[in-house]
Amino acid sequence: MKNLKLYYKPTCPYCVKVLNYMGENNIETIELLNVDEIDGLRAELNERGGKTQVPALDIDGKIMYESDDIVEYLKANF
What we know:
GST_Omega/HSP26, 22% strand, transferase activity, Thioredoxin-like_sf
C-alpha cells in the first residue's frame, strides 16, 4: 500500500469535496493534515510540491493537486 497524506483545510470547498468522497467510500487509510492547525505544513507542501494549494494528495512523496484529479485517483485505487 502506498503512503498517502492529504493536505487540506476545513473551510476549503474543494477540500470538503475530497473529504466527503473519502467519507462516503469509507477511505480511512489516508493521513489527514490540516494546514490551518499544524505549523509548518504550508511550507512543507510548498517545498515538496511547489505551491501551497489545497487539497493536495501526497502519494509516496509525489504531490497531486486539484480535487477532481484526487477524487479520480481515489476512485481508481480504493
